[in-house]
Amino acid sequence: MNLSPDQIIFWQLGFIKLNATIVSTWAVILVLVLSSMLITHKLSTHLHRSRWQNLLEVVVINISKQIEDVGLKHPHHYLAFLGSLFLFIAISALGTVFPGFEPATGSLSTTAALALCVFIAVPLYGIQEQGLASYLASYTKPTFIMLPFNIISEISRTLALAVRLFGNMMSGAMIIGILVSITPFLFPIVMTVLGLLTGIVQAYIFFILATVYIAAATSTIKPKANGS
Amino acid sequence: MLIDWFTVLAQVINFLILAWLLKRFLYRPILNAIDAREKRIASALADADKKSVEAEQQRNEFVHKNAVFDAQQTTRTNQLSAEVKTERARLFDEVRQQSDDLRVKLQLALKNEQLSLQDALSQRAREEVFNIVRKVLNDLAQASLEEQIVLVFLQRFKTISVEEKAAFKLAFQSLMPTNKTPLVVRTGFTLTEEQRAQIESTIKHTLGYDDNDAIAFAFVIDSTVVSGIEISANGQKVAWSISDYLTSLAKGVDQILQSLVHVESKAQSNSEGDSEGNNLDNSLDNSQINHKAKSQNETTVINDANDAIPTNKTEKGRNETRG
Where are chain B's structural domains? Predict the structure, then answer.
C-alpha cells in the first residue's frame, strides 16, 4: 500500500518521472479545461441560457462572492488563482468516487506545491497592491520586534496549509484502504461519502485561508487609522 | 520521503497552467457573459424606465387633452344650443312677422276690395239719385219756380261782397269797350221779356251803371244749368242753381264715406294684430291655416258679390276710388 501517489511511477528518466500524482493532476486539468471550453464555447448573453452555463456561472459568481466577503475589493483580479485552487482541490476530492483514481491532493508534493504557490502569491499580491516598501514594512508591525515572528508565521502557515490538506486527503484514502481490508462493503462506501464531504471542506478551507492571507497582505488599512 | 521535489515543481507548473487555462476558458468568458447580460438587463431596465416615464407622460398628456377636449365639447355644445335657441327665436319672429305682414296685406286687399265695391255702389247710387233729382227738378221747373229762381238770383247778386263786386266790375269794364262781347246770362229755362229787363236793370244798378248805358246782354239757354242762372264775364262768374246744391251734397256724401272707410279699416287692422300677437308661438301653423281658410271664404263671398254687378261698373268704381 502506497502512502502517496508519488510512489506509483509510470515512467522515469533519471530525475524526471511520471507518477500517478502528475497523471491525475493532468486528468483533473483536462476535465476542467475541456468542460469549460465546451460550455463557454457558445455562451449566451441573453436571459435564456443552458444549464451548464448556469452551473458555471453559479460556481464562478459564488467564488467571486466569497473572495469579496473575505475583504478583497477586486475579486476578479484574484479569481484565476484562488478559484483555480478551490476547483482543483474540489475536483480532485470528487474524483475519488471513481475507482482507481488517486487524488493528486493526497500527495504531499502536490499540497506543498500549492502551499508554495500561496507562499509566493501572497507577497506578490501584497507588493502589487501596496508597494514593496509598504509590504515589507508590514512585517515590522506592530513593532520591529515582531519581524522574526512574522516571518516564522509566514513560513509555518504555509507548512500548515500543505500538511493540513495532505493529512486530510491522505487520511481519507488511508481509512478507506484500511476499512476495505476489514469490512469489505458497507463502511468503505460510508467513508467514501464522508471523504467527499471532507474533500470539499478541505478545498474550501484551503481556498479561504489563501484568500485571507492575500487579503491580509493587500490590506491598505494603516495602524494609525485603526488606532485613531 | 513524502516530498518528491520534481513532483512539487511539476505540480507548481501544472497548477499555474491550470490557472491560466481556467482564466482563459472559464472565468473570463463567464464573467464577460455575465457582464454583458447585466449590461443588457440594465439597459433593458433603463429602457423600460424611460418607456414607463414616456408612457406616463403620454398618459398625462392624453388625460390633459381629453379634459381639454371635454371642456371644449361642453363649451361648444352650450354655444351651439344657445345659437340654436337664438336662431329658433329669430326664425319664429321672422315667420311671425311675415305672417303678420301677409295677414295685414290680405286684410288690406280685402278691405280695398270691399271699399271699392262700396264706392262703386255708392257712386252709382248717388249718380242715380242725382239724375232722378235733376230730372224731377227739370220737370218741375214751372213759371212760378223760374220766377222765384230769378228773384233769388237777383237778390244774391245784389248782396255780393264789395270785393267781389269790384272784381266783377273790373272784368266787366275790361270786357265792355274793346269788343262788344256781351255779358252772357245762362239759364236752364226760357226767360220772359220782363224777367230779362229785370235782370239787366239789377246788374246795371249793382255795378253802378245807368239804365241808359248800352250794355249788351246775351241770354243763353243751357240745360246743364239745372233750374238756375249764371252770369259770367272774363273769368268772373256769379251763379245760382240747384245743380250747385246737388254738387256740394255729393261732395259731402263722398267725404263722409271716405272718412268712414278710413276709420273702419284702421280699427279693424289694430284689433286683429293685438289679438293674434299674444298666442302666436305654438299655434302659428294652425292660425295660419285658419286664416287661409277664412280668407278663402271671404274671397269667395266677395267674388260672388262682384259677379252680381256688371264688370265695367266695378272697374270704373275702382278707378274712381283710386283717383
Answer: 137-241
- Which grid coordinates are listed for A75? 475579486
Q: Measured between alpha carbons, how far is A173 from A192 in angstroms, rounded to an integer?
A: 9
How far is CA B196 from each of CA A94, B87, B141, B260, B268, rounded to the nearest angstrom? Answer: 185, 86, 17, 47, 59
- Label residue B235 left, alpha or beta by phi (over 0 means left) and psi (-120 to 50 means alpha): left
State the cell numbers at A83: 478559484
Q: Do B8 and A116 touch, CB atoms closer than 8 A? A: yes
Burial class of B217 by CB neighbour count within 10 A (0 to 12, 13 to 18, 19+): middle
A144 CB neighbour count, 10 Å cutoff: 9
CB of A158 less than 8 A from some CB of B: no
Best mutation target, A41, A42, A88, A109, to test chain B (most B CBs within 10 A): A109
From the list B3, B18, B36, the residue facing A88 with the nearest CB is B18
* Separation between Cα atoms, residue A212 and residue B220, nearest integer Å: 173
- Of the partner residues A33, A37, A116, the one whose CB lies closest to the CB of residue B8: A116
Phi and psi dihedrals of B309, rounded to 5? Answer: -105, 145
Q: Which residues of B touch A87 (CB under 8 A)?
A: 22
Nearest to A215 by CA among A90, A118, A89, A145: A118
Query: What span, in angstroms and rounded, lies between the C-alpha atoms of B67 and B62?
Result: 8
Query: Which pairs from A124-130 meet CB under 8 Å and 24+ separation?
Result: A125/A78, A125/A214, A125/A217, A125/A218, A126/A214, A126/A217, A126/A218, A128/A218, A129/A217, A129/A218, A129/A220, A130/A218, A130/A220
Query: Least CA distance to B22: which residue of chain A?
Result: A33
Query: What would the pLDDT profile of B181-191 be if each residue is shown by its tens digit?
Result: 677 888 877 88
Residue B236 φ/ψ, nearest 5 degrees = -90, 145
Q: Would you tell me how many other CB atoms lie within 10 Å of the CB of residue B64?
A: 10
pLDDT 10s digits, B32-44 = 998 998 899 999 9
Any CB–CB contact under 8 A between B29 and chain A? yes
What is the residue-averaged pLDDT of chain B?
76
Per-residue pLDDT tens over the stretch B87-144: 999 999 999 999 999 999 999 999 899 888 888 887 788 778 767 876 777 777 666 6
Nearest to A36 among B15, B22, B40 (CB): B22
B62 to chain A, closest Cα gap in Å: 34
H or E element that contains B231: strand B229-233
ipTM of predicted assembly, 2 dp: 0.90
The listed range with the strongest mean pLDDT (A79-83, A195-199, B283-287) is A79-83
Amino acid at site A68: E
- Cross-chain residue pair B33–A112, CB shorter than 8 Å: no
End-to-end distance of chain B based on CA atoms, in angstroms? Answer: 165
Q: Which residues of A touch B38 (CB under 8 A)?
A: none
Instruction: Establish if A43 touches chain B: CB-CB under 8 angstroms.
Output: yes
